[in-house]
Amino acid sequence: GAGVSQSPRYKVAKRGQDVALRCDPISGHVSLFWYQQALGQGPEFLTYFQNEAQLDKSGLPSDRFFAERPEGSVSTLKIQRTQQEDSAVYLCASSSGTGFGYTFGSGTRLTVV
Amino acid sequence: GQNIDQPTEMTATEGAIVQINCTYQTSGFNGLFWYQQHAGEAPTFLSYNVLDGLEEKGRFSSFLSRSKGYSYLLLKELQMKDSASYLCAVDQTGANNLFFGTGTRLTVIP
Predict the structure, then answer these.
(1) pLDDT tens digits, B10-44
(2) Dist CA A36 CA A91 (whole Å)
(3) Between vectors from CA A29 to CA A49 and to CA A6, what angle results, nearest 5°?
(4) Which neighbouring-strand residues pair with A104?
(5) Residues of A with CB under 8 A from a CB of B
(6) Read out DSSP for A7-18?
(7) Tens digits of per-residue pLDDT, B48-94?
(8) Are B86 and B77 contacting, i.e. CB atoms less than 8 angstroms apart?
């Protein structure tokens, strides 16, 4: 597609609920990144894929967070047993390679109540 | 450790010039990015500096000094639509991601 598409745009989850956030990157982009952005803060790295391989997951805050990109295009970020501290905007970005600028999606705003 | 410092907030007048500073201490350096982010929207790319000096692109310019760990974004002829957050981000050697500062929220007033 023309840009990075994320869905849903907004998600309200009850504490303890599982959620799945989708990212559809720019067609042909090899690299895909997930970031978490708290209110008034800069994006913080969660995980990185090169094609279908998850090469770096050092930023995932706990084992409740899981990401996949099984066919090297669409990616899903799953959060199990959501907690209030998980409330944030989750940004997906794609790039044609490392060292190039990212194109970000508009993000999914997750609110855990 | 690694750190990026930017002012939290700035206010400037329409038509004026504003300079947003960024200092960084990171483990390795490949380049520095500036992104603009309007409230509730995606960050959008503004500039990328690899070598020391000034890169000019229309009303926006970005400067880098690698020896000082310092960059600035210069916005000229400010417009109301320039009210946004400006994010400084470093591409670190050996890292697979960009390391972002907390961003500077710029408010342009009439």
Answers:
(1) 999 999 999 999 999 988 898 999 999 999 899 99
(2) 6
(3) 75
(4) A93
(5) 4, 33, 35, 40-45, 48, 55-56, 59, 91, 98-99, 101-107, 109
(6) E-SEEEE-TT--
(7) 999 999 999 899 999 999 999 999 999 999 999 999 999 999 988 87
(8) no
Residue with tokens 């042909």: A28
Question: For chain A, what's the residue count?
Answer: 113
**How far apart are the C-alpha atoms of A89 and A35, rounded to whole Å?**
8
Q: How far is B28 from chain A (nearest CA, A)?
A: 13
C-alpha span between A5 and A29 (Å, rounded) = 13
Coil/strand/helix, residue B51: coil
Among A41, A48, A103, beta carbon nearest to B102: A41
Token pair of B22 as six digits: 């960024």
* Alpha carbon of B68: minimum distance to chain A alpha carbons (Å): 22
Interface contact B41, partner A, CB < 8 A: yes
Strands B18-25 and B70-75, sheet pairing:
antiparallel
